[in-house]
Design goal:
Mean pLDDT: 94
Helix content: 10-25%
Structural class: alpha+beta
Low-confidence stretches: 1-8, 351-355
Strand order of the largest sheet: 8-10-9-13-15-14
CATH class of the largest domain: Alpha Beta
Distance between the termini: 12 Å
Shape: globular
Order of helices and strands: EEEEHEEEEEHEEEHEEEHHHEEH
Number of helices: 7
Length: 466
């Protein structure tokens, strides 16, 4: 039986091998890409991962890395991942200049000499971009502990090695705000997450930890308004020129704070009210927690971070340039082939003799939806340009949600798995599994069946069912 959840206590963690972190510089632009070593760090806590899930899926992520024993060649650890550099190289800036981003790979400490190979997705195959041999006896392996942070158990159901460990990491909270509101903010987000399947039924498979490093000033940077703040984790709005995109480029600060909690996944809880967030696969998620829409944004962005789910919306502006060539996406919840979607086993199941199956591609009120969205997005842009109060943006979002909920809720194939045109920031080339989903709108709907399955697979990796 799982231990009763606890809150507000410092973590006590059992474990074997320590967690290792390989910090590196990811440089490129103008067609170039170089990865170079910064340092190898031994983190202060034991590795929190489940040994049974050490070799994750082979074909997820824009990148993947494998740690192997140098002597035998046996794979020790594997993960797919997304990266800040990988996001940046899809923007217009990457065709004009070079930039460098600091990134990390985390894995259990090898017992002997090991090799790390990083590969990048290249169409339908993988291409090696870096390899590095590691020696646990190397004098330059950094064992110095970073500045200690106070971690708390927000909810604990067992030892980290047996659970999926999620860290909620505050940014932009003063010491007073950490004490007064961080715990309340974290609980609000946790309540929202565990209202959704598969999280609700798998809640005993999670531990949730919290760290709130105190900031000198409240809030984080928002360059489009002239505001720059030195927050502990360095989170900022306007990433890649997108006003709502919250990211931190200060990876070292993030990792040194996070090292004091056992975690496989991180969400940065930003002490701001302006709508915003972000999520990168196996890197981190972000959310502006004081926003009226924080609960939705948190759940949506965490799904990006946990399972690499794609955005299913396509009418909102994004920072990325259109792909030069349409290829089948690796993400579980979008496809370029509506006749043979990767979730074909969930379409027209033989066991379902009551509900008629969906045609492929699946019709939905697309033109009506898009016509309304043109108006909503124009008004949204104007509100930001005029720097109107956030309450006006929230009112617009509520109006948009009411329209979309009514339209999509009464669609002919609402609730049916099919292939609905419009996804992955493209109105024509890509298809999503259901007409509505957490990954498509801010409507009060569940994750679609395909997204639920992908999320459950990630939970299984860290907390295998007995």
């Amino acid at each position: 039986m799982a231990a009763a959840p606890s809150a507000g206590t410092a973590p006590s963690v059992k474990g074997g091998s320590r967690a290792w972190r390989l910090d590196f510089f990811h440089t490129g632009g103008l067609g170039a890409e170089i990865l170079s070593l910064d340092r190898v760090v031994v983190e202060p806590l034991p590795w929190p991962g489940n040994a049974a899930g050490a070799l994750g899926p082979e074909n997820t992520g824009a990148y993947r890395f494998v740690v192997s024993d140098l002597g035998s060649g046996a794979a020790l650890y594997r993960r797919g991942f997304g990266s800040i550099f990988g996001e940046w190289e899809t923007t217009a800036e990457a065709s004009k200049r070079h930039r460098t981003f600091h990134e990390s790979l985390r894995f259990p400490a090898p017992a002997a000499k090991a090799r790390v190979i990083v590969e990048k997705r290249d169409g339908g195959s993988w291409r090696e971009v870096w390899r590095l041999d590691l020696d646990p006896g190397d004098m330059f392996v950094d064992t110095a502990a970073p500045r200690r942070q106070q971690a708390i158990e927000l909810e604990r159901h067992g030892e980290p090695a047996e659970k999926l460990d999620l860290l909620l990491l505050g940014d932009g909270y003063t010491a007073k705000e950490c004490a007064a509101s961080f715990g309340r903010d974290a609980k609000r987000l946790m309540d929202a997450l565990f209202r959704h399947e598969p999280f609700r039924s798998r809640r005993p498979d999670f531990n949730v930890w919290g760290i709130c490093p105190p900031a000198e000033a409240s809030g984080v940077s928002r360059p489009s308004t002239g505001r720059h703040v030195a927050s502990p984790v360095g989170t900022s709005y306007d990433a890649f020129g997108s006003e709502r995109y919250l990211l931190t480029f200060d990876n070292r600060a993030l990792r040194e704070v996070a090292a004091w909690a056992p975690y496989e996944h991180v969400a940065i809880v930003v002490n701001e009210e302006t709508y915003g967030g972000g999520g990168i696969y196996n890197l981190y998620a972000t959310v502006a927690v004081k926003s009226d829409w924080a609960e939705y944004v948190f759940v949506h962005e965490l799904a990006h971070e946990l399972a690499g789910l794609a955005d299913e919306y396509y009418t909102s502006p994004v920072a990325y340039e259109p792909a030069a060539q349409v290829r089948e996406p690796w993400e579980a919840n979008v496809t370029a082939d509506p006749q043979h979607p990767k979730w074909a086993d969930l379409v027209n199941p033989e066991a379902d003799l009551v509900t008629p199956g969906a045609p492929l591609p699946t019709p939905w009120p697309k033109e009506e939806y898009e016509k309304a969205e043109v108006g909503f997005q124009a008004r949204r842009k104007q509100l930001r340009a005029e720097r109107r109060p956030e309450s006006e943006m929230s009112a617009l979002f509520r109006e948009e949600r009411a329209f979309a909920s009514a339209l999509l809720g009464k669609a002919e194939h609402a609730g049916t798995v099919g292939a609905f045109q419009g996804a992955n920031y493209d109105a024509q080339a890509f298809y999503r599994p259901q007409v509505d989903c957490v990954m498509f709108t801010r409507d009060e709907v569940p994750f679609c069946a395909v997204c639920q399955r992908a999320l459950a697979a990630v939970i299984d990796l860290e907390a295998p069912r007995r």
